[in-house]
Amino acid sequence: MRNLDTTVIEDAVYRAALKAGVDLTSSCRHALEEACTAEYEGAAKFALEKLIENSEVAARMGMPVCQDTGAAVVILEIGNEVCLSGKPLYDAVNDGVRRAYKDGYFRKSVCDPITRENTGDNTPAFIHTEFISGDRIKMTFMPKGFGSENMSALYMLKPAQGVEGIIDAIIGTVRKAGSRPCPPVYVGVGIGGTFDSCAYLAKKALTRDIGTHNQRSDIAEIEKEALRRINELGIGCQGFHGKTSAIGVSCEWAPTHIAGLPVAVNIQCHCVRCVKESL
């Protein structure tokens, strides 16, 4: 058994939040550069060039890469041989978020859903926990902006709709979103599970490196086909049309009930920010 004080988790969240706020993932930068190289001349190419330039300036200057510094999404995969001590786990995570958003001068965007009163420090974080084997904790921090989150959708398909129904749901969501989520988008998809767990699968899919594929070959084919069809929509960077409407599609899955086929589609804008640490 390995003892771990939760201040270690707090400090890891703090570091990750500060880094994620100013820096795109390397796979996102690579995907944007590839899209820019492949794009025709015109407004879409110009927009991609500016997105890349913006990311470079943000990283160099240590300034937010987007004005929407997001709601703090934290995934903790906790080893079964880890014994936590100190302050309660969720308090530690929220303290890390609170410190980072203050020290990084990041916009505080979390508020009461009814009164709209801002909490003032971007807490509470949206925390997901999983239990795994071993004596380590895998921490993933992802700031999620709501221009793209608002374009997400959950479908309760009939089992008979099958793979085509899944792909149609993905394409329909992106088509309906159009230019509003600041494309080119990254699309996370959850397949299976229940109404609530399916949405988490879609969120978790967005933490994967862009360009990676699910280990299941049939689900990897869904990813590839969905990406192909999305890029045939012609939405293009920032809605200026062109060849690249999405830089990636990632799917995660879970077993489901014989009577259902839940599909969740979580849209992420071009500004993919995600930091992982092993503790």
What are its keywords?
metal ion binding; four-stranded mixed β-sheet; 8 helices; globular; alpha/beta; 279 residues; EC 4.2.1.2
Supply the helix-strand structural class.
alpha/beta
How many whole angstroms does the radius of gyration measure? 19 Å
Give the count of helical stretches.
Answer: 8
Q: Give a short account of the largest sheet.
A: 4 strands, mixed
GO molecular function: 4 iron, 4 sulfur cluster binding; fumarate hydratase activity; metal ion binding
Protein name: Fumarate hydratase
Keywords: 4Fe-4S, Iron, Iron-sulfur, Lyase, Metal-binding
Organism: Candidatus Coproplasma excrementigallinarum
Topology:
Elements: E1 2-5, H1 6-22, H2 26-38, H3 43-61, E2 71-79, E3 82-85, H4 89-103, E4 126-132, E5 137-144, H5 146-149, E6 153-157, H6 162-177, E7 185-193, H7 195-205, H8 217-231, E8 246-256, E9 261-268, E10 275-278
Parallel strand pairs: 1-3, 2-4, 7-8
Antiparallel strand pairs: 2-5, 5-10, 6-9, 7-9
Summarize the structure.
With 279 residues, the protein is of the alpha/beta class. It has 8 helices and 10 strands.
